[in-house]
Specification:
This protein has 269 residues and is of the alpha/beta class. It is built from 13 helices and six strands. Strands 1-3-2-4-6-5 form a six-stranded mixed sheet, sandwiched between helices.
Length: 269
């Protein structure tokens, strides 16, 4: 009941205040749908409840050598999400890790193959070790609910796995060390649809430096092993908390995402 009220409040705030279809869509029935076809990863693989990950190859680290090379080698060696998480937890090449409480890997269901990528953990995420659990995360949950998703039917991670002190923007070096892990993360999830939350995410994932107001709402492609994955850049929920008038833009983007997921489920391009 609380979920449906929050979703309704989000829709009204976003300007979706009139009925379009003849028949109401039962979002909660939609939730009961099985995850999207074709995914091979299990939530157990990341929660640590599944089979124990293979030992991660040992690499010399912290010797002022080649942390980006180490990140690449460790990420490449991970054959599933549990191994990638273990690799990140033992990687010492990024200074952000030293001031962070937790490595924030991901939340949600990787088998959904609907991948949301934010920027970096904040204070609450650093404490709890999970992405998007603070105020922006609560808004993200409402955004998900508005298109029939939740953390059992979507998967959420960040460009950075460690909180930058004072929530500052990551430096280019910090991002460079995080990117091999993020790229491998995307490959292992093998998403059908990807949603980038905010300009920092678009910049690092797509290598585009034009502002989020230019990129949002327009589908782009990301190459995963030769397959082009549709990517929707949209506004970050933290930005929407500051600029609620722009929720209607995010709502438009999310409607396009909902349609794309439906098409992917139906096996249409
Ligand atoms: N903002 C993000 O981009 N990611 C989080 O996990 C939390 C806030």
């Amino acid at each position: 009941m609380q979920d449906s009220l929050s979703a309704l409040a989000w829709l009204v705030e976003a300007g979706a205040d009139e009925a379009i279809g003849e028949v109401a869509v039962d979002r909660f029935a939609a939730k009961a749908n099985p995850p999207l076809e074709g995914g091979s990863k299990s939530a157990q693989q990341i929660s640590g409840r599944g089979p124990a990950p293979r030992p991660i190859p040992t690499l010399p680290q912290g010797e002022g050598g080649d942390p980006i090379g180490d990140a690449l080698a460790l990420a490449r060696a991970a054959t599933n999400l549990a191994e990638l998480k273990a690799a990140l937890e033992r990687f010492d090449g990024c200074a952000l890790k030293k001031s962070a409480t937790n490595t924030v890997f991901a939340d949600g269901n990787p088998q959904s193959r609907v991948l949301f990528i934010g920027e970096a953990p904040g204070r609450d995420e650093d404490r709890q070790g999970l992405p998007f659990v603070g105020r922006a995360g609560k808004l993200l949950d409402k955004m998900l609910a508005a298109i029939g998703l939740d953390r059992t039917s979507a998967y959420i991670t960040n460009v950075l796995n460690w909180r930058p002190p004072d929530n500052r923007e990551p430096s280019p070096e910090e991002a460079a060390m995080a990117l091999p892990f993020l790229r491998r993360h995307i490959e292992l999830v093998d998403p059908l649809v990807m949603i980038l939350l905010g300009g920092t995410s678009v910049r690092h994932v797509m290598g585009r430096s034009d502002g989020i107001m230019k990129t949002r709402g327009r589908w782009q492609d990301y190459n995963v092993g030769g397959r082009m994955v549709p990517v929707m850049p949209t506004l970050h929920p933290a930005y929407l908390l500051r600029q609620p008038a722009h929720k209607k833009l995010a709502w438009r983007d999310l409607q396009a995402v909902e349609q794309k997921i439906a098409a992917a489920r139906a096996g249409k391009p």
